[in-house]
Design a protein that fits this description.
mainly alpha
Length: 218
């Protein structure tokens, strides 16, 4: 059992090291990455590296071709503008309409906890943690709909959202602004106003926190 735990931990530690290289820009979009390369640099077995890379493929950070060549995943301005943002607006707006009436005190506390942790991430300039909290914030909106089909669609694009945030936000570097944007959105969503006001605020948030910096994507 201890051996299994050790292997499990190693796989995740290796995956975290590769994620860090991607977040820091040391592994670029489209750059080739091999088991041998990572194994030698980290001093670990190729088997553990293979397991870590498979995990990162599932998360959307790496892409493997039919010929088993693995590269860092890419995302384009066109995909974000034409597909990702419109899909997010449709999914999250619909989920908000369905879920908002059932939000209770516990839901509100969960949003407040996310904002509190976002503030901590900003103070440490911790972009990876902030991105995960950003995704969690919006995921809560989707999950609150309690509609399995809507949640499944969200889960099918969440890795592309993460990749978009990673590449765009690592270049724009405006963590404090993103925090204020989420605080403003949360204030509207939790104020007890109309569903129409909440949906409009959400749509505005998604557009205004993404469109102005999308040019940073290569």
């Amino acid at each position: 059992m201890n051996t299994n735990i050790s292997k499990f931990s190693l796989k995740h530690r290796i995956a975290q090291e590769i994620r860090k290289l991607i977040f820091e820009g040391k592994l670029k979009q489209g750059e080739k990455i091999t088991e041998t390369q990572v194994s030698q640099e980290l001093g670990v077995s190729r088997t553990s590296v293979r397991e870590a890379m498979l995990l990162l493929e599932l998360e959307g950070f790496l892409i493997s071709s039919p010929y088993k060549e693995t590269r860092v995943a890419t995302i384009s301005q066109e995909e974000v503008i034409e597909i990702l943002i419109p899909m997010r607006i449709m999914i999250e707006s619909y989920a908000l309409k369905k879920g908002l009436p059932s939000w209770n005190a516990e839901t509100k506390e969960q949003f407040k906890d996310i904002l509190k942790n976002m503030k901590i991430a900003v103070s440490y300039e911790d972009l990876p943690t902030f991105i995960e909290l950003d995704i969690k914030f919006h995921e809560m909106i989707v999950i609150s709909s309690k509609m399995e089909n809507v949640i499944n669609i969200w889960e099918s694009i969440v890795h592309r959202i993460r990749l978009h945030f990673l590449y765009q936000n690592s270049k724009s570097g405006t963590l404090q602004k993103w925090l204020l944007d989420h605080e403003e959105l949360a204030s509207t969503l939790l104020s007890g106003g109309t569903i129409e006001e909440a949906v409009e605020s959400l749509r505005k948030h998604i557009n205004e926190t993404n469109i102005p910096d999308v040019y940073l994507l290569e």
